[in-house]
Amino acid sequence: MLSTSVINNTAFHPSTFILLGIPGMQDQHVWAAIPFCSMYILALVGNGTILYIVMTNRTLHEPMYLFLCLLSITDLVLCSTTLPKMLTIFWFRSHIISYHGCLTQMFFVHTIFATESAVLLAMAFDRYVAICHPLHYTSILNATVIGKIGLACVVRGLLFVFPFVILIKRLPFCGHHIIPHTYCEHMGIAKLACASIKPNTIYGLTVALSVTGMDVVLITTSYGLILRAVLRLPSKDAQFRAFSTCGAHICVILVFYVPAFFSFFTHRFGHQVPPHVHIVLANLYLLVPPVLNPLVYGINTKQIRLRIFGFLREGGS
User: What sections of the protein cross the membrane (predicted)?
Assistant: First the structure.
């Protein structure tokens, strides 16, 4: 009786999972790790630089730069949640991850993604207020409001993602424990279960459409209102600068959301998509935005750009 109980418990919750990496590209893992590692280093350096410059310059303690710091923090956590383990898979063939370690990684991946989505929405709102209501900018976005917005971004992510853990823990795993991915995420784990995963599918779809989808709608609305205000500017030069800035922001936002939604819907409907294409894109939406955000939001900002150049000149002298 005891041995049967142990077997059933093992079948219900496996002790480990095996992360396969990029399916069909196992022979190229060593070489594929090089660009991923390079982008990870760029993300660490870029976001670390933004945090250092803003934190050490009191003149930059303004809403836009505080939101930029929050974005840099989420970027650092987002890529650091998956890249170190991915690199150990590619270079050291360390494919095994514990059951609880897998759930922890899944929880952080989805929580930080939801948090970053909310931060991008907050930054779009910040730009809307700054351009469309400049006289009320400092009164609307004071330090207290920014703190509450930052807290709300994190809490929202925690509240919507925690049910993923509960939904996974209720599932029995009595087959193989191989995840054809480089990191643990909700549907990738759920598909290994030997029970109905309909609640996982429904809840995941609901969260994606109602939470992340609503963020996309509100961000689009904010930039639409910004562009309408820009078109009313009398100066063509001011219009060009505003279009240039907004265009760069929109490109980064698309890089963040398009691969994410592609990966999400591929799990449910894209059975004809080659697995290696799906997995590569699923990694890009966690890595490319942390690389691009410091360039687009940071270096594209005059005050930060001047301080970076000043810092480089001091280092050179």
Answer: 30-53, 65-83, 103-125, 145-168, 202-230, 242-265, 277-299
Q: Bigger pLDDT: 251 or 150?
A: 150
For 184, other C-beta atoms within 10 Å of its C-beta total 25
CA distance 287 to 277: 15
- Residue 78 to residues 66, 116, 189, Cα–Cα distance (Å): 18, 9, 19
Give which of 170, 255, 161, 256 is closest to 204, Cα–Cα: 161
Residue for token pair 């594929």: 32
Q: What is the mean pLDDT of residues 282-311?
A: 80
- Both tokens assigned to 146: 């920014």
312 SS3 class: helix
| CA dist., res. 162 & res. 166, Å (int) | 7
> What secondary structure letter does DSSP report for 208?
I
- DSSP character at residue 273: S
Cα dist. 148→122, 142, 144, 156, 160 in Å? 11, 10, 6, 12, 18
What's the burial of 226, exposed, middle or buried (CB within 10 Å: 0-12/13-18/19+)?
A: buried
3-class DSSP state for residue 247? helix
Q: Which strand ranges, in their side-by-side order, compose the sheet holding 96-98?
A: 96-98, 16-19, 178-179
* Mean of per-residue pLDDT scores for the chain: 88
Distance CA 294, CA 74 (A): 12
Cβ–Cβ < 8 Å for 283, 182: yes
What is the pLDDT averaged over residues 78-91? 96
- What are 97's strand-pairing partners? 17
